[in-house]
Amino acid sequence: MARRSRSSFGVLRALGGYYMQSADSIVALTADTTITPDDHAGKLILINNSTLTITLPTINNDMEPITSGPDENPNSLNNTGIMYDFLFLTSSGTSTTIQGNSSADLMMGGLLSVKNGLTNVHFHEPNGSSNYQIIMNGTTTGGVAGTRLQIQAVYTNRYYVEGFSIGTGTLATPFAG
């Protein structure tokens, strides 16, 4: 798999906009996976299996050494700000889990959950103290095909979640742990 190139040129500024085009801009997951910045960040991650466990990487917000200056090291391991974009192509079965690397990697933000047919709309948010997993079952906790989640590493042990989840039955929170 081709690696995303790293640059020491600074911030990329696209005056007329930019877009990614190629098979490399999409990654399909069909088995349990540990996400990595090099292989998954900035790409559309397709969930194409009804029961998966997807583990997010450890968040590293280490400062750069004073010799390189802020944002000047193309080999930096700092991954705060990186976004992971998930799209369910297949409805979740008994359990599709997206989880932090450890139980200390808490979720914040929330998901708009909609019942098929738009008869019910709920906003679900993690509890802020123990929820490090998103567990979708294809019914009450969402994960029906078309569900889309964006998860961003924002600080040590904090992932920000936003998205739109489609479910059936009596909707319940997908946040757990």
How would you explain this protein's 3D organization?
It is a single chain. Strands 1, 3, 5, 7, 8, 9, 11 and 12 form an eight-stranded mixed sheet that branches. Strands 2-4-6-10-13 form a five-stranded mixed sheet, with no helix packed on it. A hairpin with a 5-residue loop joins strand 8 and strand 9 (121-124). The relative contact order is 0.19. The protein has one domain (23-59, 77-176). With 177 residues, the chain is mostly beta strands. It is globular, with a radius of gyration of 17 Å. It is built from one helix and 13 strands; from the N terminus they run E-E-H-E-E-E-E-E-E-E-E-E-E-E. It starts with 25 loop residues before the first strand and ends with a strand. 2% of the residues lie in helices and 34% in strands.
Question: Summarize this, please?
Answer:
This protein is mainly β and 177 residues long. Helix content is 2%, strand content 34%. It has 1 helix and 13 strands.
List keywords for this structure.
1 helix; eight-stranded mixed β-sheet; 177 residues; disordered N terminus; globular; mainly beta; five-stranded mixed β-sheet
